[in-house]
């Protein structure tokens, strides 16, 4: 089955700096790669996603890149703000009838004011 | 739209007791799943369903049962609770991606608010 590795497990940045979280996946059939943000005590929420036919996607201060050949994808947050502090999860899934979504272990991001 | 509704939010069980965690969605999502979240272990898939009447096991299915009699509901049953099942449980739903390339639908999950379960 699919295996998703995520690193780093914790990340501290100064407010205004950039943050990068990286994930690798094992199943070459995976083609959908969402990212979720989970604030303390709350549910995970989708913040951005990318499909395998796209190499990069951007939404304001966040962007995701995908390298299918190397089987890795990354989340980039620019101009970080204290409200970006949360746990971020990457995930990978295939398509077709029995889509299974496999999550990375999560990255705890702390933005220091 | 209520989204994904999970009940209860908190529950304490004694070892050996059984219970059902409820999950309902009103977005006409075909795909529903249950995850457990434990410190340092991320989100692990327990069971999932691609439509009414169809379920399958995830990564950690032992000790749990599911059924999907309607599109809207996907309850998770703990058969005989054990302390190892102490966790936070999330239900999630999404559109099926069987038309992945043909439509522009959002295939990301909508999560419920979670159930914090303690087994003593």
Explain the overall architecture.
- The complex is a heterodimer of chains A (113) and B (120).
- Chain A is mainly β and 113 residues long.
- In chain A, 0% of the residues lie in helices and 56% in strands.
- In chain A, 37% of the residues are buried.
- The model of chain A has no long low-confidence stretch (mean pLDDT 93).
- With 120 residues, chain B is mostly beta strands.
- The A-B interface holds A 1, 6, 31-32, 34, 36, 42-46, 49, 51, 53, 89, 93, 95-106 and B 31, 33, 35, 40-45, 48, 50, 56, 58-59, 90, 96-98, 100-101, 106-114.
What is the topology?
The complex is a heterodimer of chains A (113) and B (120).
Chain A: E1 4-7, E2 10-14, E3 19-25, E4 32-38, E5 45-51, E6 56-59, E7 62-67, E8 72-77, E9 86-93, E10 101-103, E11 107-112
Parallel strand pairs in A: 2-11
Antiparallel strand pairs in A: 1-3, 3-8, 4-5, 4-9, 6-7, 7-8, 9-10, 9-11
Chain B: E1 4-7, E2 10-13, E3 19-25, E4 31-38, E5 42-51, E6 54-57, E7 64-66, E8 76-78, E9 87-94, E10 110-111, E11 115-119
Parallel strand pairs in B: 2-11
Antiparallel strand pairs in B: 1-3, 3-8, 4-5, 4-9, 5-6, 7-8, 9-10, 9-11
Quick take:
With 113 residues, chain A is mostly beta strands. In chain A, 0% of the residues lie in helices and 56% in strands.
Task: Supply the key terms.
heterodimer, A: 113 residues, mainly beta, five-stranded antiparallel β-sheet, 56% strand, B: 120 residues, seven-stranded mixed β-sheet, four-stranded antiparallel β-sheet, 11 strands, 0% helix
Largest interface: A-B, 28 and 29 residues
Order of SSEs of chain A, N→C?
A: EEEEEEEEEEE
Q: How big a fraction of the residues of chain A is strand?
A: over 45%
Alpha-carbon Rg of chain A, integer: 14 Å
**Ends of chain B: how far apart?**
36 Å
Gross morphology of chain A is: globular
Instruction: Tell me the radius of gyration of chain B.
Output: 14 Å
Q: Biggest β-sheet of chain B, characterized? A: 7 strands, mixed
The residue fraction in helices of chain A comes out at: under 10%
Percent in helix of chain B: under 10%
Number of strands of chain B: 11
Protein structure class of chain A? mainly beta
Strand content of chain B: over 45%
- Distance from first to last alpha carbon of chain A: 41 Å
* Shape category of chain B: globular
């Amino acid at each position: 089955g699919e295996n998703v590795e995520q690193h780093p497990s914790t990340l501290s940045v100064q407010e205004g700096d950039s943050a990068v979280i990286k994930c690798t996946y094992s199943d070459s059939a995976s083609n959908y790669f969402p990212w979720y943000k989970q604030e303390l005590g709350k549910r995970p929420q989708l913040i951005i996603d990318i499909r395998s036919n796209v190499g990069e996607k951007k939404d304001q201060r966040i962007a995701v890149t995908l390298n299918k050949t190397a089987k890795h994808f990354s989340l980039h947050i620019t101009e970080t703000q204290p409200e970006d502090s949360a746990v971020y999860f990457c995930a990978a899934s295939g398509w077709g009838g029995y889509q299974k979504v496999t999550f990375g272990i999560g990255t705890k991001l702390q933005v220091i004011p | 739209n209520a989204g994904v509704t999970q009940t209860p939010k908190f529950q304490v069980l004694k070892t050996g007791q059984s219970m059902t965690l409820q999950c309902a969605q009103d977005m006409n999502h075909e795909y529903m799943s249950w995850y457990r979240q434990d410190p340092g272990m991320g989100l692990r898939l327990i069971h999932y369903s691609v439509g009414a009447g169809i379920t399958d096991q995830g990564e950690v299915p032992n000790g749990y049962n599911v059924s999907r009699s309607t599109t809207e509901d996907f309850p998770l049953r703990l058969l005989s609770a054990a302390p190892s099942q102490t966790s936070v449980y999330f239900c999630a739903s999404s559109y099926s991606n069987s038309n992945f390339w043909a439509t522009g639908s959002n295939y990301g999950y909508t999560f419920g608010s979670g159930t914090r379960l303690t087994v003593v």
